[in-house]
Batch of 3 targets.
Target 1
Amino acid sequence: MSFGMSYEAMKEELAKRLKRSRFIHSVGVSETAAFLAGRFGVEEQKARVAGLLHDCAREFRNEDMIAEAQKRKIAIGAVEQAMPLLLHAYIGAKRIREIYQVEDKDVEQAIWRHTVGGPQMTALDKIIWFADMIEPGRDYPGVENLRQLAKEASLDDMMLAGFSQSIQFVVAKGHLIHPDTVLARNELLLKKIR
């Protein structure tokens, strides 16, 4: 694990690059991730940094995401092509090294997976994904139930509820569901059945 910048320096840099509401969201995810890391025995500093920087690529406009991904040789699937905003997770995973001097595979992977999830998610991956859903600034039907689960449920039960709610929301909006989200949810369900 190598963080070339202090957490405070990362925070200052991020504040310059993101609009204020996105920055406040990022700090909220960082603090929520630190709480969840403490609860589930994950390294708090990694959770705090991954939470802070998870949306660092949101400094780019949606219409620039494909070009930014191509610049970094990130594969762009059909779902990302149709919904380029999803690419911010993958671009952000690369930006942490470029801008914030973070050289940490776990943090990079957690940021990469924070939007759609994926198979064989680590505890850190799950924490960042879930913290993004429940940070204090989030306000949507069902968020209080998810916040309650964050205090009392197992990490996998929490994630299963989160994925289920997320998929229902995306379906209701008529959007595409990323295959990695389905894989992640199915994997959790299969674990329960076995």
Note: The domain at 2-193 is CATH 1.10.3210.10 (Hypothetical protein af1432).
Target 2
Amino acid sequence: MFFKREELEKFIEEDIPYFDLTSFSLGIEEGEARISYFTRENCIVSGSEEVKGIFEILGIEVENFVRSGSEVEEGTELISGLGNVQNVQYAWKVGQNLLDNSCGIATKTRKLVNLLKNNGFNIPILTTRKVFPGTKKQVTKAILMGGAVPHRMGLSETILVFDQHKEFLGGIENFVKKLDMVKLKCCEKKIVVEVKDFEEARILARAGIDGLQFDKVKASELEELIKELRLINPSIIILAAGGINENNILEYARTGANGLVTTAMYHAKPIDIGVKIKEV
């Protein structure tokens, strides 16, 4: 994941808009210090490259460094560096916030991925774009490090038709009439429609839709429907979405869906990242 220098500078500026009043008041401004980030839990690392970039901006020389995607045990030092004591204070909380949230999302993602893999399912976990504005890059990197794949990064890259679009089309029959035109216009894209109504799903399958996304349909109901839809259209892509988490992901995996769409990892508990700062 590529972060521009200006983006990392904004992270710093957000926490230090003018100067560090505490360090200034205490006279902690001169001298050298060592800063070290370590994990108090087993985790999947994410965000360490961004902290490294923040170190470089602040003139902190990197010592030890663990790459994102690494699986580490409790007590592991993730990144450390030497620099001016004031700049080390500047880096402190920005780096910690990046690591604990990113590692938390990556770790929960890996748990979900392993839950499927360890039970014999080779099904991708797809993540939605329901992230807090301003965090998409960090969150996307974290889920990639955990082993999931973004469902869609934004409105510009995929065609996913919701009820909010159908509202302006005058019903599913009118959408079906437009389907060939849409396929012609966007010949390199797959056209996916989110559905809840089973009869609507059958109509779309017969019309040759590329994919269907079922939202909040019970796994027990979805399993039989998927078998029926594949008899109608063997190449159709089926996605299950809505409320999928570690408690029911195996049920949805058994339905035969091609992919499972979830936001569960975005609500992961942050990893407990500790910080040590010592005078050199």
Note: Residues 118-267 form a domain with the TIM Barrel fold (CATH 3.20.20.70).
Target 3
Amino acid sequence: MSVWTEIQHQIGQVLGRDFVIADRRSVGGGSINQAFQVNDEHQSYFVKLNQASKVAMFEAEAAGLKEMQDSRTIRVPRPLGWGTAEGHSYIILEWIPLGHGDSQAWFAMGQQLATMHRQTHEQGFGWHQRNTIGDTPQRNPWTADWGEFFAEHRIGYQLQLAQRGSHFRHWEALVDKIPTLLAHHPAPSLVHGDLWSGNAAFSQGGEPIILDPATYYGDREVDMAMTELFGGFPPAFYKGYQAAWPLSEGYQQRKILYNLYHILNHFNLFGGGYASQAQQMIEQVLRTV
């Protein structure tokens, strides 16, 4: 069975009627996957394709979207199905025609994200399955202590991928200090995990949407830190968040460590100048101890 025949069948099962692709066009969907808009004469859907070995990535994306959807706090694309066929893996998502957000819409996004962050989990920090951050595996074993989780399964794992001392000075001191740096006792929050501007959008009616998650339960500040990493969100977003749930004292120092995770990941994915940026951040973090 071809991948498109399988996708038609999956959509038809969800709809409870036959679905035959009348039009299929390539659309933007990030650098990792091929992305398509498919539709019959009634409805459109968003489909991402990759090689068959990447099916676990799509399974985790669907589970993460459902976890956020079940919180009933902020809109995410509804996953319809995922699987493999003809050497491909795929995920089928709700198609949401996108528009632009004004300051009121950005304020609402901040408030809705804060509400999502109040969703917690009794098992602590982590998640029930692994997922990916970009194309990098992200380990999420349930852990009681946040500092231990971030030291071992976030910074430590990225440094392991980067062969540690061969690239970065003082990495051992950094990992040793992370539990002290993160001793502010955050509650486990449902986080998006990869919340930069490319993963925040608005419907044509101005409804906030977040997409392409790397979901887990962690310190809510990891999401807020990443919103500042690549250009930042508009001021209205931060006003909305702060109005709903003000950030804790010490966030300005912790956000450097939290964003180091993403810069290390970019180094591991893309190399180049991210090494010097990561080194500067390591030294900046250690100066705060």
Note: The longest strand covers residues 44-51.
